[in-house]
Amino acid sequence: MKKLPLCIACSLSLGITACVNDTVSFEFTGEPIPPALDTPDTPDNPDTPDNPDNPDPPDTPDNPDTPDNPDNPDNPDNPDNPDNPDNPDNPDNPDNPDNPDNPDNPDNPDNPDNPDNPDNPDNPDNPDNPDNPDNPDNPDNPVDPDDPDDPLVPTDPDDPDDPVIPEIPEDIPPVYEPGETLTGLTAYRVARKVNFWGKKEITPGFEAFDVENADLGVLYKTRIAFVAEPEIRKTLMFMTAGQKFGMIEHSNGVTGQQGDWDADCNDEICENITLEGQSFAMKLRSLNWFDAETTWMAVGLDNNFDYTATKNKRTRLVAGFTQWITSQITDDTETIVLAGSSRGGCLSLRIAQEIRAIPEYDHITLFVSSYDGVCHKGDELGVDSPKIENPLRSKYAGYATDIEAQYATHENLYIFHLSGGQEVVPLLDIRTFSAYEGDTPPKVGSHLDFGWYRQKWVPYAHMDVGTAYHAKENIREQAISDTIDSQLYWMQKKLFGDE
Predict the structure, then answer these.
(1) How far apart are CA 53 and CA 67, in angstroms?
(2) Phi, psi dihedral angles at 433 (to 5 degrees)
(3) Which among 189, 331, 353 has a CA at the least distance from the CA of 262?
(4) b/e per residue 274-286 (b: at least 16 CB within 10 A)
(5) How far is 171 from 178, CA to CA, in rounded Å?
């Protein structure tokens, strides 16, 4: 038995605060004494800070001030918390419409609907925007030379860098109707595989390609179809497409070949070739300006005149084509017609360059039609820097060449080059060329007519120059007139004058 002051004993058992100055006897029985409900620190006291039901303690989850309280404005998980990443009003919230990084934010530079977004199809500065005046695919891009308000047309004759394009009456040709569409033709590889291990040899009929150090690998990819092979050959015609890139469809408006012409090829031949009647080759054939009965004609579906090949390979290929074409010459031959687009245009010009260097053929008239012909900068046809700007479309240009110096003689030689100047391969700056008058290449080009050489600038994309009848419908008719029909009209006037 212990004696405690009365006030302590009473307070422990009854919560009495007043004390009597005496002592009482108190026996501990071992049973806990229940705490008073009013004690502030008891867990059941609604006022205790650790009471989960206490509305006031700062750390309780139901307390609006507790950081774990979802209603706590300072709670990072509070949807109403401006700092909550899930808060739609949070400026750092990716779903916040005012968030500059929000893809749905109209001011977001990455927002496709942002008018300032360069990838926004409605952005006037977007290069892929069909309404962008500088977009090469913009159907309104081909400019109207008669519209003085068109910013792409130079209008200041006193500005040497902004010349007015001289008008050439021949620029408005008649409409030439499509010729006959040929089907079921066969193309031959110039070199073929002859065994299981891939050994190659020159295909019979193409022995002239077997020049010194001929590359059979290059000739294996070179494929040619014959349209006509008469015994009497007053005229030779060879038309060729541009460079073929892998499995990409390869249609062409000079030859008339369709995009899938190589769908039925093996190690020797390609069958079921179609040449479309609206092409330059088929229109010219149907006009019969050169008697069909005495005109030998072939088309190079794939000349394999690869821009990236070494100079030696390209030179040998030109030599092979030159020997093959001249091997078709007979005592009756009066005219050779060569035509091509892109790399095929340059190949045609290079073949003409080689033929005109052989005096025994000076009596044969050469016609060469180039559609945005692309020659290798630095080692083909004198093509090199600087670039001459297309006067109809300032972002297009052609590398300068002194065309007068490229041919041994201009006698019986007639060239018509259509120059567009779009960059053919992005970032590599591969493009067509431009001749010029005088001693120094100008900054901006102009139409040229030297009698033997004519050049006309056109405002069309590279593919549309080569295959105008595949251009967008709203420019197709004009593109055909400015390319295929323009070339035909030039040739007609050279053959028959103004009659």
Answers:
(1) 16
(2) -125, 170
(3) 189
(4) ebbbbbbbbbbbe
(5) 20
Rounded to whole angstroms, the Cα distance separating 477 from 141 reads 15
Instruction: Give the pLDDT mean for 315-343.
Output: 98
One-letter amino acid identity for 105? N
Q: Do residues 370 and 350 lie in contact, with contact meaning Cβ atoms separated by under 8 Å?
A: no
Helices (H), 329-399: 343-356
pLDDT band at 94; cut points 50, 70, 90: confident
By C-alpha distance, which of 434, 425, 308 is closest to 373? 434
Q: Quote the CA–CA distance of 399 and 409 in Å, as a whole number.
A: 23
| Measured distance CA(68)–CA(206) in Å, rounded | 87
Other CB atoms within a 10 A radius of the CB of residue 414 amount to 20
pLDDT surpassing 90 at residue 245: no
Q: Could you report how far apart the first and last alpha carbons of the chain are, in Å?
A: 146
pLDDT of the residue at 45: 61
Residue 99 parent element (H or E): none
Pairing of strands 223-228, 182-189: antiparallel
**pTM score:** 0.70
- For residues 385 and 355, the answer to whether their CB atoms sit within 8 Å is no
Compute the residue count for the chain.
Answer: 499
Distance CA 461, CA 49 (A): 79
b (16+ CB within 10 A) / e for 323-354: ebbbeebeeebebbbbbbbbbbbbbbbbbbbb
